[in-house]
Structure formats: C-alpha cells, structure tokens
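User: Teach me something about this protein's shape.
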Amino acid sequence: MMNVAVVGTGMIADLVVPHFEEWGISVAAVVGTPNTMEKGNQMTTDFGGTGYTDYAEMLADPASGVDTVYIAVPNFLHYSFTKQALEAGKNVIVEKPMTSNIREATELSDLAREKGLFLYEAISTIHQPTYAKIREWLPRVGTVKIVSVNYSQYSSRYDAFRAGTTLPAFDPAKSGGALMDLGLYCLQWIMGIFGEPESVRYNANIERGIDTSGITTLDYGAFKAVAVAAKDCAAPSSCVIQGTDGYLIQTTAPNRCGAVTLRLNDGTEETFDGNPELQWEAEFRHFAEGIASGDTAECYRLLDHSLAVSRVQTEARLGAGIHFPADEQ
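Assistant: First, the predicted structure itself:
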C-alpha cells in the first residue's frame, strides 16, 4: 500500500481522499496552509497521517513515511509543487492539468524519468472501463468522419466574474479558463483514442484576458474533431464518434465517461456501462497498482499521452491569444 501525502484540502480532496483506503492507498500526511489548518487536522483525524502547514518540511521529514505525493492545489502551483516532490525523491500524482504549458510538463517528465520516479496526471477519462469499450467497438463504426465532444457547465464562479471579482477559475495569472478545465477533458477523450491531430485551432470567447468558453477544432486529415467547453453557459454533455457504418455515443461528460452506446446503420444497437460508481476509482486504483508493481513503463506511456495533450492545449491556447505568466518564464 503506497503512503501518500495529500497536498491541498479543497473540493477534489474531499471527493477522493475518503475512498483512498479501499483503493489501496494509505494517507501518511496532509498538507494545508495556516489558514486551512483546522480542515487539515480534521482530515488527519478522519483518514490518518500527520498534518503539516509547510510543504518543504513534509518533503524533508523522514518520519512522515511518505513515498507518493498527491497534489491537489490550484493549477498554477502544479509545476512548482510537482518539481519539489520529484527532487525530494517522491512519486507524484498531480491533478489535471499537470502544468500550465508544455514547457513545464516536459521538464517534469524529464525529471521523473531521470530519477526513475512515477509521475501521473490525475485524469479520470482514460482509465474508465467504458473508454476501453469505445476503443474495442471503434472499428465497427467504419471509417471515422466526425468526432464531437461537448462539456458545457455553467460555473457558479462566473457570476462573481461578471460582477468584477476574478477567482482562480477565471484568472490568467493562475492558469484558469475553460480550455484548462473542462476543455482538457474533451482533449483527453479525443486524443486518448486518436492521438495528436495534424493541426489545432481554438476559437474562444474571451473576457478580461481569459476564455470563458470556446470551440477547439482538431484536424486529423481524414476526419475532423471538435471539442466544445464552456463555463459561461450550459448544455447537455455528449461524446460522439460518427463513422460510415454507424456511431458511438455517450450522453455524459467526458470526465465521467459513462455508458456508451453503439448504433450501426443496419439497426444493430448495443450499450455498455461498466464503470465503478465513483468516477475517480479506476484511475486511483491504476496508480496504486502501477506504483506497487514498479511498472514505470506503463506510467511513462500515460505520461507521453499527457505531454501530447499539453502540447496541443498549449498551442490552441496561445493561438487564441491567451497568455499565462508561466509562458513568459
């Protein structure tokens, strides 16, 4: 069982940490800030481990027993927190997006490989059993012509943004925006099946220097893909692959990657729904099993995929004129 330091006490930690033990993960430490000390102490009471308010202190403390760091802090901190952990000889699971741009992602990838450490981007999509079924069924739709993914969810933070308050979700200085959040799931879903496109373009709705929504088009030559991501308006989620012999469809968001239906031109219809109840279970079980078995080859295969997505995401974002401070370093 790997011994994890949970770094961050926000919403995603609340969702996943209560289930760590059943997924083969032991909480060895919780790292918060002086302002979140009470929350951090409650987490150690509930799930075990030692509480810290100094990240560097935790990394340097041999008594912590930590071998893996789970980083669940705001986007713009992912790079520095991950780098510190790798330099301290710790494996890392970092929430999506792994970094603000491809330069940072490549540096961390090189460091992890140099040290023989595990570096995983926590992205639920590509680990779901339904996603494997899509790959299995894909040849049955014939020649792929159109791929479309829509993840549009009105953000409660957008109300504050419209009123003049810039929270991290819409802050360029903190690597926010629709493409870095919901759009990443769309890219992960498409590229996990089809790889890197020949070209990419992001047409974004930009307010105060950040994309509140937008449409990414990916040109694969023989077929086209489109990814719609919005935090300023809502719509039903869907993921569709259209081919000459039929289509595959999910009517869930790409991060949940729920039940998939195959419908063929001859009237054949099949549906598969084999995911765990919690959308994060498959990924964290995969991480725990990979580290326990020492399978760095599989880890680095997934890391290559994360790098490809980061490369496309960075090109799309910069092409739309959206710049982060991390791009200037």
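Now, about its shape. The first strand starts at residue 2 and ends at 7. The first helix runs from residue 11 to 16. If you'd like, I can walk through any region in more detail.
User: That's plenty for now, thanks!
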